[in-house]
Amino acid sequence: MKNTKYDFESAIDRKGTNSLKWDLFDDDVPMWVADMDFKVAPAIENAILKRANHPVYGYTIVPDELFQAYIGWWDRRYGFKMSREDMLYSIGVMPSISSMIRCLTDVGDNILIQTPVYHVFFYVIEENNRNVLENPLIYDNGEYKIDFDDLDEKLSESKLMILCNPHNPIGKIWSKSDLARIGELCKKHDVILISDEIHCDLTNPGVKYNPFESSDNVITCLSPSKSFNIAGFQSSIVHTKNAELLEKIKNQMHVDNSDSCNVFATAAVIAAYDESEEWLEELKDVLYENKQIVKDYLACELPVIKLVECDATYLLWLDCSALNVPSKVLSGFLRSNQGLFLSAGIDFGLNGDSFLRMNIACPQEILMEGLARLKAGITALNIIKN
């Protein structure tokens, strides 16, 4: 690893900290859920410690400084203009989407998603008694693209569309032309579009994502939780220029009690956006280096698995189709045989069943251990199969 100002090398023992990633199960190398095994940016740690030194942790309000931190970040980095009156605070992107499903659709309505996609999209739709309508992405020669003919047809039957940009799990940044075409089709069919852009900062060095342009039927969900590894503070915003939609969402989030603020969240978010940009740029270099390590390792040591090239996120989509093993079986075998936990591709949709998702946001020591166990597991699987 090249020299960095910040510490991305120390392997931190997270066992016994009530970590979802490390304590929920007993796997030796968990590389599944999307959080990072790096120390948080120093400015965030300092801001939290400063707030912790005040000995009262009562109910808290969301100050304008938090919204200004969001506004400044998206304007400075992406040229995406937001106004305070177009924003709502929420405890998280998925709670926000759940609230929006309840107030913008009716029981039994169709909600469109593009598979393979973040598995919680399925749950939040189905558990709100709405129907999942899939626009399967086309996988061709190692790349994904949108089937716009199918999208046009499916939107005619939908009330709402949930977009993932950049897309989890394939790590694709949708082009401006793709986004414009999606927007045109949603307007054509009078469909409200929710754009989940939580992974937007985690692009390869020199690459920027394209925010979905604001319009009357577009709602954007933003959060620093993935970029700065502060998901535990539960903080996000909802943005739309449609005042009528915003009022409906505001009322529903209040009913759902998802508009309250964690006492430490404000300090963490402001420190992230106002003081931790340099840390994020170093992180992106580290993640890109990890991607290259995985790419080279697979090519040299495990060519039966192909890496789907990506421009964003720290989640790698591994094409395991040559193994001809269902992803649940493959993921389960790697866990039982090697203590390595990778996400089964079928969790992201039926068209993901030939894939595994691998979280590489960790020090290289852990990454290399995970790759070694992946190779050992595939070798053992082949021996057993043969």
Descriptive notes:
The model has no long low-confidence stretch (mean pLDDT 96). Helix 10 runs parallel beside helix 12 and helix 11 (327-338) crosses helix 12. This protein starts with 19 loop residues before the first helix and ends with a helix. A seven-stranded mixed beta sheet has the order 2-10-9-8-7-3-4, sandwiched between helices. The protein folds into two domains: 20-41 and 277-385, Aspartate Aminotransferase, domain 1 (Alpha-Beta Complex), CATH 3.90.1150; 45-275, Type I PLP-dependent aspartate aminotransferase-like (Major domain) (Aspartate Aminotransferase, domain 2, 3-Layer(aba) Sandwich), CATH 3.40.640. The protein has helices spanning 20-23, 42-52, 64-78, 93-104, 120-126, 148-155, 176-188, 243-255, 265-275, 277-301, 327-338, 364-385, and strands spanning 29-30, 87-90, 110-113, 131-134, 138-140, 143-145, 160-164, 192-196, 218-222, 236-239, 306-307, 315-319, 340-341, 343-344, 355-359. It has 386 residues and is of the alpha/beta class. The radius of gyration is 21 Å and the shape is globular. It contains twelve helices and 15 strands.
Distance between the termini: 39 Å
Task: Spell out the helices and strands N to C.
Answer: HEHHEHEHEEEHEHEEEHHHEEHEEEH
Supply the CATH architecture of the largest domain. Answer: 3-Layer(aba) Sandwich
Main beta-sheet strand count, sense and barrel state: 7 strands, mixed
CATH class of the largest domain: Alpha Beta
CATH superfamily of the largest domain: Type I PLP-dependent aspartate aminotransferase-like (Major domain)
Beta-strand residue fraction: 5-15%
Strand order of the largest sheet: 2-10-9-8-7-3-4
Q: Over the alpha carbons, how many angstroms does the gyration radius reach? A: 21 Å
Number of domains: 2
Helix content: 25-40%
